[in-house]
DNA sequence: CTTTTTTGTTGGAAGTCTAAACATACTATC
DNA sequence: GATAGTATGTTTAGACTTCCAACAAAAAAG
């Protein structure tokens, strides 16, 4: 039951119906390909005639291509399979992290081309931009694409570790890189003239990657939350199949909802944020038996000893490591319970290095979730792990570029 | 950028455009009446011809009526004003509270008819239902409406103090009334045969009242939060002009997000929930210098001494009362900051008895919000008071009945 | 009274979806 | 191998929309 905003609505025109059905067909081809016109008519419960017309338009625009004929073991004419014409363009995804930057090249529906490469992250904005230029051109050459990205590149999507405003393209604050109010998109647009640049933070980007993933299993439900546990805690909230971004493009900062307002100091300056309990640094600090304070610069041992090392120690039988992980697990679950109580999502996805230890921590997480959720049903909310090998941040970066072509038209 | 759910979408048919424009016109008449066809064509940036056709349909359905002619001080033919035909039917809103139940009768766009009446709330479900029958018939008689509500009543909307599942019509848990798993709608449908009954909790209902309020000022922005502070704390979240309800129809329980996981015990059984810090009972307990524990039955003094009394004491110079209020104010602000960080809404509305003391507590609330929000912009998020005289709960109850006629059609 | 301006209506053009008939291509079977 | 049967994809006519321009109606200004 959505209210129509009387100050900002979209009226229906002659072409509105066509536009809607066109996007539905694109979506169905994307999620069901290979698929025939007849299949589409059944999925949409409409007649084949209309499908033919719309598909012909998509073929003419080269958004869709016809492939081999299907070979069904039934009588009748063989269907001609349709595919998204993903060779039409390509997209570049970048995952900027404090230590290294990861990069992926994909076709126009986000399917990976070549290997994921990484290179050191430059802390100076100017150097950062020029090194990106070098690396992108190198990667394109390797996969045999035109090295001038302006040509057929649909866009560059960048996931940035910190607070960003995607509309203005400004990095508001990225403590790990020491950036404040850097107009990143402006600089990048000069470097890659004509190529659209998109910016997003990690939690929201991860949520995007799940919305737009082509795996069928995840595309059935419309309300979900992605929690990315890493150096910081990023959260992306999906409502009605749409990522919520908020008035200032900063929605999703559940990482700074407190567990205890008098708790340990957080990098944001406040006390007792969820992030201060479950970020990788918090877990490490717990292991080293020091006071957890994310405000101070990271002590030397946490630079050499990573969360992965800690997980390995725990697996090796180090009880101190296991205790540190278990504490994190409990706090993770308590925070998840808050999110579940607040939003009642269909499922929660969790990403980040901590997922490598999921087999060790799952019971504690679930117990804590059950403990603080208000109803039994809420306590049973599906919690899924998104392992690092799926590269949710990179896929989210790519989705910033590839998704708009498939998005529902705004109407009413 | 909304994803189309490939398992659950709505294709566009021949009539889709018409349906969309029809709802837009209804919305515009509702928010701008009196309004002429020519006005509508300008607001929608379309030609008058189309408006005429659609309006004629609405006139034939008696959803809209023509009124007096406008008398503009300009040349040209005078416009015929259009109005929502609000005399077509009527709606009944009920606000059930632990002590008394409040009732309002409205026309079909939610404009109040007659006075708001109240009567004692029966704790036994059967008595509750039959007393509702008596009271509703009495109220209808008084305002001169047909006393058999099945006739032209569009529906009955009920706001219930507790956890409800509006889809199944079950009161899951209402500690204040001692109800658990009561199938309220089933019982009421027997009493009021043929009349649609709607159930909702208080926080979400208040949010509805703001979405569907006909006041123009609030209808400009699409993302907001309503926080209702009373015996409990209810929250309704609006995203894209739509109340989010969640998978199990329980979304919005920010009241049980903790401020400190080791804090005072809450009525939900957990510790340190926001509700345990800011509910009326929490404020009263603080005043009486007792440990705040909402788990135990309310002590005698809080039954005789209400939050309104406390506010009056504070106004009268009682420093203990003022201190109690100030503590509540600070915790209120800290919790609001969490919501603002998490959702970045355009504005936050606050309702409940505590709003009577807004002039006393506003500075502390705003300071606490600024203290824990992540950016300056978030700290400046508009916070508005919805005074008790606006009866947000009752208006929300009514909106459950009246809003669907104006809602945007679901498409794609 | 005539001109100007605004409102509301009408008829047809253009663009949708829809339903039915039709052509095409393949399998199964005699 | 011919024929019947079946599924796919296309064409054509119909119904329903928005869109555009012209037109009638009504009121104020000159």
Structural key phrases:
homodimer, 412 residues, alpha/beta, five-stranded mixed beta sheet, 14 helices, 37% helix, 21% strand, globular, DNA-binding
Structure description:
2 copies of one chain form a homodimer. With 412 residues, chain A is of the alpha/beta class. Helix content of chain A is 37%, strand content 21%. Chain A has 14 helices and 16 strands. Chain A has helices spanning 16-32, 37-43, 48-60, 125-142, 184-191, 202-211, 275-278, 280-287, 300-304, 307-315, 319-343, 358-372, 376-379, 392-402; strands at residues 35-36, 64-69, 80-84, 90-96, 100-107, 112-120, 153-160, 163-165, 170-174, 179-182, 197-201, 224-229, 233-239, 242-243, 347-352, 382-385. Chain A has a 5-stranded mixed sheet with strand order 6-5-4-7-11, sandwiched between helices. A 5-stranded mixed sheet of chain A has the order 14-13-12-15-16, with helices on both faces. In chain A, β5 and β6 (112-120) form a beta hairpin. In chain A, α1 (16-32) packs across α3 (48-60), α8 (280-287) packs antiparallel against α11 (319-343) and α11 packs across α12 (358-372). Chain A is globular. The structure holds a DNA duplex (30 and 30 nucleotides).
Within the largest sheet of chain A, what's the order of strands? 6-5-4-7-11
> What level of helicity do the residues of chain A show?
25-40%
Rg of chain A, rounded, reads: 23 Å
Name the shape of chain A in a single word.
globular
The averaged pLDDT of chain A comes out at 90
- Taking pLDDT < 50 over at least 5 consecutive residues as the criterion, the unreliable ranges of chain A are none
Strand content of chain A: 15-25%
Distance between the termini of chain A: 12 Å
User: Number of DSSP helices of chain A?
Assistant: 14
Chain pair forming the biggest interface: A-B, 91 and 91 residues
Quaternary state, please?
homodimer
Order of helices and strands of chain A: HEHHEEEEEHEEEEHEHEEEHHHHHEHHEH
How many β-strands of chain A, per DSSP? 16
The secondary-structure class of chain A comes to alpha/beta
């Amino acid at each position: 039951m959505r209210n129509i905003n009387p100050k900002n609505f979209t009226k229906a025109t002659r072409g509105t119906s066509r536009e809607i059905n066109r996007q539905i067909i694109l979506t169905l081809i994307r999620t069901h390909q290979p698929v025939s016109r007849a299949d589409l008519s059944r999925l949409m419960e409409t007649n084949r005639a209309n499908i033919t017309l719309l598909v012909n338009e998509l073929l003419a625009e080269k958004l869709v291509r016809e492939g081999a004929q299907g070979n069904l073991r039934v009588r009748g004419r063989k269907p001609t399979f349709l595919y998204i014409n993903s060779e039409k363009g390509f997209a570049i995804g970048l995952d900027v992290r404090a230590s290294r930057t990861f990069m992926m090249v994909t076709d126009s529906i986000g399917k990976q081309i070549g290997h994921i490469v990484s290179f050191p992250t430059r802390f100076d904005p100017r150097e950062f931009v020029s090194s990106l230029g070098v690396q992108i051109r190198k990667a394109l050459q390797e996969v045999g694409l035109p090295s001038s990205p302006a040509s057929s590149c649909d866009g560059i999507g960048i996931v940035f570790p910190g607070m960003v405003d995607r509309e203005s393209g400004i990095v508001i604050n990225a403590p790990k890189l020491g950036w404040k109010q850097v107009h990143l998109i402006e600089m990048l647009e000069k470097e890659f003239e004509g190529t659209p640049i998109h910016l997003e933070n990690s939690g929201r980007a991860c949520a995007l990657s799940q919305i737009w993933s082509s795996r069928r299993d995840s595309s059935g439900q419309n309300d979900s939350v992605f929690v990315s546990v890493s150096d910081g805690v990023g959260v992306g909230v999906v409502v009605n199949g749409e990522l919520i971004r908020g008035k200032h493009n900063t929605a999703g900062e559940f990482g700074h909802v407190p567990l205890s307002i008098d708790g340990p100091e957080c990098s944001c300056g406040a006390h007792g944020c969820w992030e201060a309990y479950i970020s990788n640094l918090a877990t490490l600090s717990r292991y080293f038996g020091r006071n957890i304070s994310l405000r101070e610069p990271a002590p030397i041992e946490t630079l050499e000893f990573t969360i992965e090392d800690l997980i390995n120690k725990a697996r090796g039988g180090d009880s101190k490591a296991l205790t540190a992980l278990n504490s994190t697990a409990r706090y993770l679950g308590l925070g998840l319970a808050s999110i579940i109580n607040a939003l009642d999502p269909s499922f929660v996805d969790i990403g980040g290095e901590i997922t490598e230890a999921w087999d060790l921590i799952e019971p504690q997480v679930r117990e804590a979730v059950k403990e603080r959720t208000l109803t039994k049903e809420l306590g049973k909310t599906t919690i899924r792990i998104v392992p690092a090998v799926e590269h949710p941040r990179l896929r989210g970066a790519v989705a910033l570029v590839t998704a708009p072509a498939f998005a529902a038209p705004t109407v009413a």
